[in-house]
Amino acid sequence: MALAFRPLHPLFAAEVSPIDLRGVANRETLEEIRAGMDRYAVLVFRDQQLEGGEQLAFAERFDGRLHAKTGAAVLGKSRLGNEALTDISNVDETGGLLSAGDRRRMYALGNRLWHTDASFEDPPGRYSMLHAKVVPPVAADTEFADMRAAYDALDEETKLRIAGLRAHHSIAYSRATLGFEFSREEQDRLPGAEHPLVRVNPRTGRRALYLASHASRIVGWPLPEGRLLLRELTEHAIRREFVYRHRWRVGDLVIWDNLATMHRGVAFDDTVHRRELRRVTTLDLPLPA
Ligand code: OGA
Ligand code: MN
Question: Which atom of ligand 1 lies closest to the CA of 141?
């Protein structure tokens, strides 16, 4: 099936022509979507009527194994009944809005920091697929930054300086920067992971900065020096020209490449307005030949 991609931003992100992803199972169409991901890094599919099981099944058909060792799973059981189906909402198990001081809400506020999904795991997340079920009447958008364009725009000296460097990523670290603390036992389940600071897409050869608020240090560097470099690179990467802002509609499924983008939720009054989305993230494992 020939898909059409309509660009949403000068550098990246595109809306895909109408298609019902529940029915997409042939490898050819799935690889067309992957090729679209390689080019645009963020794809928007409108009007998807996916139940949780269908969203999980599509993600597995498309890209294989799913990420389930989430930070949220360490806090307690998901109301959605499957740790691979992440509850991106401000709602508790009774359907009420989370109160301001609820620990799950405070944890979820970390999504407002620029990040990539599951970079604190090894393998880290590859594609995230976020499906909108309930969207508030006020803007409650998600922003994406093109980390390939950000890499390309670095000066040659910086590219040389960062080549071969690795960063340690930890969700305990990123949450601690907001004053959210995991207990000792929770932290033991979230040890973090090391990843290269520059990633190369194996199909296109394109390089991208691999950053996140989870990045806590540069491996082998003094702590302050590594944190300064990470801060400098992040400030560069989130310049407005690299950012696409997605305004959600009910039924949107947005797929992004965590190895080519960063993202963050934009603040809205979440103690007043209900917002319910569901995310499935695949793991960055080698693809079958
Ligand atoms: C996510 C995420 C941001 C948002 O689902 O991984 O970071 O706007 N979401 O909800
Ligand atoms: Mn996220």
Answer: 8
d(CA 261, CA 115): 9
> Is 147 inside a domain boundary?
yes
Structural domain count, the chain: 1
Query: Could you tell me if the CB of 230 is within 6 A of ligand 1?
Result: no
117 lies in some domain: yes
What sign does the dihedral 121-261-62-55 (CA atoms) show?
Answer: positive
Q: Which atom of ligand 1 is nearest to the CA of 142?
A: 8
Element (H, E) at 217: strand 215-218
Q: Is residue 41 part of a domain?
A: yes
Give the relative orientation of helices 27-40 and 52-63 as an angle to the nearest 10 degrees.
Answer: 80
Q: 167: CA distance to ligand 1 center in Å?
A: 22
Which of 277, 280, 281, 282 maximizes ligand 1 atoms within 8 Å of its Cβ, making it the mutation to test the pocket? 277
Residue 236's domain comprises 5-283
pTM, whole model, 2 decimals? Answer: 0.98
Residue-wise pLDDT for 48-102, tens only, equals 999 999 999 999 999 999 999 888 888 888 899 899 999 999 999 999 999 999 9
Any idea how long the chain is? 289
Ligand 1 near 43 CB (within 6 A) = no
Residue 104 DSSP code: H
Q: 145 C-alpha to center of ligand 2: Å?
A: 12
CATH (domain of 116): 3.60.130.10
Q: DSSP states of 38-91 as a string?
A: HHHSEEEE-S----HHHHHHHHHHHH--B----HHHHHS--TTS-TTSEEEESB
Q: Is the CB of 111 under 6 A from ligand 1?
A: yes
Distance between CA atoms of 108 and 102, rounded to whole angstroms?
10
